[in-house]
C-alpha cells in the first residue's frame, strides 16, 4: 500500500498486528488496482493497536482528476497528520464517484472502509480525515447524518479540514455544537447537488427533445461507422461497408467467432487501430439496433447502477447502415445458431446441428466421435439415453450417412409438390421479421412492468406506448400470415432448394477453408428448410420440412423409410396426392395406413407395447 512520507518505515503501508483483514483499494489517480490494507486488533506484544489516520478523498467527475482537487485534499491531510505525529493511510480514494445519491456507499473505497468499521477491524480512536463533510456524503440530511453517527459510534474520529471540526463520541457528549455545524454543512451540500442535478437534468431534457424533434445530435458520441459533419450524422462509408459485411456473414450462417476470424484473416482494419477484431465488438454490432439508425436515450448511470431507458427509441436518429429485413434475418439466423448450440470442429461438426431429435423422448441428439473411419466415425445418439436419464433409444446412426442421404434427397425432391401452398420467401421473411419484432417489444414491456408497479409514471407511459406498438405489429403479423398461407408457388423457395443442392455438390470438390465456408452456408440453408430430423429406432430417420403457417405439423403427410433411411414430411395441400413423396434408397411409396403422422404415432405405440 502506498503511504505518505511520514509513515515510511518498517511498518509503512500497513497497520501492524497479529490479525489481518484485506481490502481492495483504487490506485491513486488511475484505474483501480488491487491493494491490501492490514488492519489488526492486537499488537504482537499484546498491546492494543495505536490509532491510525485514514484520509478519504473523493470527487464526482473524472475531469476533476486533471485539476487540483486530488493534490489539494491529499496535501492538507498529510500536513494535518504530520503536525500530530500520526501515521497516514492515504489509499482511500473514490475518484469520479458522486455522493449525491449514495453511490460511493455501494461501490468504491468508502464502502469497503465502512464494512471494516462495522466488522470492528479499524482500531478504536482512529481518525478519518476529510476535506469537508460533503466528501463523505451529499445525500439528504437524515441519510448523511446517519453515516456520520455510525462512524462516531464505532469509535472513529471524523476530522474536517476545511473548518477544523473534530467529531468524536467523547467530545459530543459534552459539546453538541459541532452537530449543528454538521447538519448545516450537510444541508448546504445536498441542496447544492440537488440544484445542480435539476439544472443538468433540464439541460439534458432539452437536448433529448431536440434530438427527437429535430434530429439534432445529443452528444458528440456516435457509433464507430458514423461521423458528425456540419452538425449532422453521416456514414463513414468504408466502415459502414464492414458493418454490412458482418450482417451478411451472419445471415449466411457464420457465428460471431467465425466472423471475427474472417475479418482478421482479410486484414480488415479495426475501429480504433487495435490488434484484431474481438467477438464482443461483433456481438454489439449484431445485438443492438444502432445499425438501423435507432438511439435509445437513458437516464441514470452505469456506475450508479440506476441506468434505465428513457422514453421510446429515436428512430432515424443515425443514418441506417442496414434495412429492417437484413437486420431481422441476421437476428433470426443468430437465434437459430444459439438453439443449435454444440461443439463445432474446424469443418463444422455436422450439417444437422440442432435439428436432430429423439423420437422416443423428444430430447436432442448428441454427436459422438468414435475416431477416424473406417472403424470409427461420427454418430448420432440420444443425449438423454447417453446420460442414463430414462430414454431407451440406444440406437446410433452414422452422421455422414444421414447427411449424405439428406443431401441426395434434396437433389431428387419434387420441388413442385413442395411449393404448392408454400409461403413465398418474401412473405416468409416478413412473418419472421414481424414475429421477432413482436417478441422484442413484449420483452421490453415485461422489463418495464416492475417499474410500473413501483409507480414510475415515465415507465407507465413507455409501457402503454409499447402496448400500442405491440397491437400494431400483431395486426401486421396476422395479415402477413394470411398472405403467406394463400400465396402461390414460391420461386424464392425453389431457389433455396437449388442453392442447397448446388452447395452440397460444391462441397464434395472443395477442400480446407473453402469446404468449411461451404458447409457453414449449407448448414444455414438446411435450418431454413428443415424443421427437425427425428431419429426413431422403429421407423427410421424422418426429416420434417417446415410446414406452411396454419397447418399443424401432425396433419402434414410423411413417408416412412426403413431403418437408417430418411423419410420426408412435406408441404402438401392435398393429403391424397402421393406425387410429393420422394423415395430414397428404393423406399416404396407409403400405403394409406402410413400416410398420416397420427397413424404413425399409433403404430409406434403398438410396437412399444408389443
Task: Give an account of the 3D structure.
This protein is α/β, with parallel strands linked by helices. The protein folds into three domains: 5-191, Rossmann fold (3-Layer(aba) Sandwich); 228-339, Putative Large Serine Recombinase, Chain B, Domain 2 (Hect, E3 ligase catalytic domain fold), CATH 3.90.1750; 346-422 and 489-610, no CATH class. Helices cover 45% and strands 11% of the residues. The protein has 19 helices and 16 strands. It has helices at residues 69-84, 103-106, 109-118, 133-136, 141-153, 169-174, 177-214, 237-251, 256-265, 279-287, 324-339, 383-386, 399-411, 415-419, 425-453, 457-486, 491-509, 512-529, 597-609, and strands at residues 53-59, 88-95, 127-130, 157-160, 165-167, 226-229, 232-235, 298-299, 308-309, 356-358, 365-369, 378-382, 397-398, 530-536, 540-545, 566-569. The strands form five sheets. The chain has a five-stranded mixed beta sheet with strand order 2-1-3-4-5, with helices on both faces. A hairpin with a 2-residue loop joins strand 6 and strand 7 (232-235). Helix 8 (237-251) crosses helix 11 and helix 17 (491-509) packs antiparallel against helix 18. It is elongated, with a radius of gyration of 34 Å. It starts with 52 loop residues before the first strand and ends with a helix.
Amino acid at each position: 500500500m502506498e503511504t505518505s512520507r511520514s509513515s515510511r518505515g518498517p511498518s509503512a503501508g500497513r497497520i501492524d498486528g497479529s490479525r489481518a483483514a484485506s481490502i481492495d483499494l483504487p490506485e491513486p489517480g488511475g484505474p483501480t488496482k488491487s491493494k491490501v490494507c492490514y488492519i489488526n486488533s492486537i499488537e504482537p506484544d499484546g498491546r492494543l493497536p495505536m490509532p491510525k489516520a485514514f484520509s478519504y478523498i473523493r470527487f464526482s467527475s473524472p475531469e476533476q482528476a486533471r485539476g487540483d482537487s486530488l493534490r489539494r485534499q491529499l496535501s492538507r491531510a498529510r500536513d494535518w497528520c504530520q503536525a500530530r505525529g500520526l501515521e497516514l493511510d492515504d489509499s482511500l480514494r473514490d475518484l469520479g464517484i458522486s455522493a449525491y445519491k449514495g453511490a460511493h456507499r455501494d461501490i468504491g473505497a468508502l464502502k469497503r472502509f465502512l464494512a471494516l468499521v462495522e466488522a470492528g477491524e479499524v482500531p478504536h480512536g482512529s481518525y478519518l480525515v476529510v476535506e469537508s463533510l460533503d466528501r463523505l456524503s451529499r445525500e439528504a440530511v437524515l441519510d448523511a447524518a446517519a453515516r456520520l453517527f455510525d462512524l462516531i459510534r464505532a469509535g472513529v474520529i471524523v476530522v474536517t479540514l476545511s473548518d477544523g471540526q473534530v467529531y468524536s463520541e467523547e467530545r459530543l457528549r459534552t459539546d453538541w455544537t459541532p452537530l449543528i455545524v454538521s447538519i448545516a454543512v450537510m444541508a448546504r451540500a445536498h441542496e447544492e447537488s440537488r440544484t445542480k442535478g435539476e439544472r443538468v437534468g433540464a439541460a439534458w431534457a432539452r437536448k433529448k427533445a431536440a434530438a427527437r424533434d429535430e434530429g439534432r445530435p445529443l452528444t458528440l458520441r456516435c457509433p464507430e461507422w458514423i461521423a458528425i459533419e456540419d452538425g449532422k450524422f453521416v456514414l463513414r462509408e468504408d466502415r459502414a461497408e464492414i458493418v454490412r459485411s458482418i450482417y451478411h456473414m451472419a445471415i449466411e450462417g457464420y457465428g460471431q467467432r467465425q466472423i471475427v476470424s474472417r475479418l482478421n484473416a482479410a486484414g480488415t482494419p479495426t475501429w480504433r487501430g487495435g490488434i484484431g477484431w474481438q467477438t464482443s465488438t461483433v456481438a454489439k454490432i449484431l445485438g443492438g439496433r444502432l445499425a438501423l439508425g435507432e438511439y435509445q436515450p437513458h437516464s441514470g448511470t452505469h456506475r450508479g447502477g440506476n441506468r434505465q431507458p428513457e422514453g421510446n427509441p429515436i428512430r432515424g436518429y443515425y443514418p441506417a447502415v442496414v434495412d429492417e429485413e437484413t437486420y431481422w434475418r441476421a437476428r433470426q439466423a443468430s437465434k437459430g445458431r444459439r438453439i443449435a448450440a454444440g461443439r463445432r470442429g474446424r469443418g463444422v461438426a455436422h450439417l444437422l446441428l440442432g435439428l436432430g431429435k429423439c423420437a422416443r423422448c423428444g430430447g436432442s441428439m448428441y454427436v459422438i466421435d468414435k475416431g477416424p473411419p473406417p472403424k470409427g466415425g461420427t454418430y448420432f445418439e440420444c443425449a438423454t439415453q447417453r446420460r442414463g436419464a430414462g430414454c431407451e433409444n440406444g440406437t446410433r446412426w452414422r452422421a455422414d450417412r444421414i447427411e449424405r442421404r439428406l443431401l441426395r434427397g434434396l437433389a431428387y425432391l419434387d420441388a413442385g409438390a413442395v411449393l404448392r401452398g408454400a409461403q413465398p420467401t418474401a412473405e416468409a421473411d416478413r412473418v419472421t421479421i414481424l414475429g421477432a419484432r413482436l417478441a422484442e417489444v413484449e420483452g421490453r414491456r415485461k422489463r418495464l412492468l416492475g417499474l410500473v408497479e413501483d409507480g414510475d409514471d415515465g415507465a407507465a407511459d413507455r409501457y402503454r406506448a409499447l402496448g400500442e406498438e405491440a397491437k400494431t405489429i400483431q395486426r401486421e403479423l396476422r395479415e402477413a400470415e394470411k398472405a403467406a398461407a394463400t400465396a402461390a408457388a414460391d420461386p424464392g423457395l425453389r431457389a433455396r432448394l437449388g442453392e442447397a443442392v448446388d452447395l452440397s455438390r460444391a462441397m464434395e470438390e472443395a477442400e480446407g477453408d473453402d469446404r468449411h465456408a461451404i458447409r457453414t452456408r449449407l448448414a444455414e440453408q438446411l435450418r431454413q428448410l428443415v424443421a427437425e430430423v427425428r431419429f426413431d429406432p422403429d421407423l427410421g430417420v424422418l426429416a420434417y420440412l417446415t410446414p406452411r403457417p396454419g397447418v399443424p405439423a401432425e396433419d402434414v403427410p410423411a413417408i416412412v423409410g426403413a431403418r437408417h433411411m430418411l423419410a420426408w414430411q412435406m408441404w402438401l395441400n392435398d393429403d391424397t396426392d402421393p406425387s410429393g413423396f420422394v423415395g430414397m434408397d428404393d423406399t416404396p411409396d407409403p400405403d394409406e395406413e402410413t400416410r398420416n403422422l397420427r397413424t404413425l404415432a399409433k403404430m409406434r405405440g403398438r410396437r412399444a407395447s408389443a
